[in-house]
Design brief:
Chain lengths: ~240, ~240
């Protein structure tokens, strides 16, 4: 019986991966993942079997992993960012648990909330929330409830999946919901192509964010009441006074 | 003029670091950090100057970094976990901005929410919140407000700093607040010594968590309404049905 590692490869560049993640790929017999992610590591493993998965076929991918592991192969199932956060750890563990397969290791990685925050400065320096605007997996009512709760808690927020061609206008909707609770001039920022070629960042207010042009390669950050801009960076103070 | 990199080294083991983090340490002339973190990397840099910082002397550490950079040194300021999340990115950027020093890079790392979740399974598979129970940096009223908001939003929650010798009983207080909104049998778990020798995990209910014995080396996870236990792991489904 082989084993399965669900591996978060970070934002994209090979050096944004942890040594543990790289080791899990090195030690695998086969690497399985959504094709946009296998493309990121293919050149580094010219001699390894790599299986490209299709979008939304997550269950198929997990079953393929299980089948290969049962054939005695060590399998690495890769995800961008972290393995857990909107990643494959959850469906893989669900599929494995149903068949009583135990040997699944989760190898964490740097999720876009952290890598995007690092580009902007330190917007998530204290407590924070992560919310995806994709209603493919979560009903919009729940997303709306979470946005309002995050505003009530004065959390800095990282928004994933702010838009796609099927979900144009979702960021505007989210901003309109937040603007019921938060001021127009709340400090925000967003980052495109984190950790890949052509990384771009922009700082703005919440009112301006509402009209920002974003796509699926953008991660959005909304500050707390204490977040401010200094030296071109977005900063949420840790709490004590820096004099 | 030298440059400053604020580097998240991950949970502790050298292989939990990213290649980018390791590169930032390799390329530095001096490594500065709280002594518990410099201890983690010292053996790997026998020939490098390492400056041990004292607890709570964050501002001093940032000023030392700036002084060294102005003397022409490349400085790596290290944090455990991520550089931003409860890390030194925020105070360093504040100190640098006040003196007009621009050359500060933030190198993200795997924060305990991600590395701890990986040990437990996939509790943070969708939207989530991170909240610290330390009232050294955040007033308890704000922490309480955030706990209630997180429960209202049905977020899975990662709790940092659940206890210390000065703050015994804080986890119990937090659980009592959450139990106003959440059921006794809400699935929870906690992990001690993530990514270090002696990693231990435990799954429990929210009622049981209230009496759990935790210390400053523990990270606590509270599930959402959808979180369940299977195969000995804590799983929050991603949203679609795995059949």
């Amino acid at each position: 019986m082989g084993r399965i590692a669900v591996v978060g490869i970070g934002p994209g560049a090979i050096d944004a991966m942890t040594y543990d993640a790289r080791k899990a790929l090195d030690e695998s017999d086969v690497i399985i993942g959504y094709q946009a992610y296998t493309a990121l590591i293919r050149d580094h493993y010219p001699d390894k079997e790599i299986v490209d998965g299709q979008m939304r076929r997550e269950r198929e991918r997990c079953e393929e992993c299980l089948k290969r592991a049962k054939e005695g192969k060590n399998v690495a199932l890769i995800c961008s960012g972290d393995a857990g956060v909107y990643g494959m750890a959850s469906p893989m563990l669900e599929v494995a648990a149903r068949e009583g397969f135990q040997d699944v290791t989760i190898v964490p990685g740097v999720t876009a909330a952290l890598s995007g925050a690092a580009v902007l400065g330190a917007p998530l320096a204290t407590d924070f929330c992560v919310i995806s605007l994709s209603d493919l997996l979560t009903p919009w009512e729940v997303i709306e409830k979470r946005l309002l709760a995050a505003a009530d808690g004065d959390f800095p927020i990282a928004l994933y999946n702010p838009s796609s061609h099927k979900r144009a206008g979702y960021l505007k909707r989210a901003c309109e919901i937040l603007l019921k609770k938060l001021p127009d001039d709340r400090r925000c920022g967003y980052v495109r192509n984190i950790g890949r070629e052509g990384t771009e960042m922009k700082l703005c207010t919440l009112a301006e964010l509402s009209d920002a042009s974003v796509d699926m390669f953008v991660t959005v950050f909304i500050g707390s009441s204490r977040t401010y801009e200094a030296g071109g960076r977005l900063i949420t103070p840790r709490g004590y006074e820096i004099q």
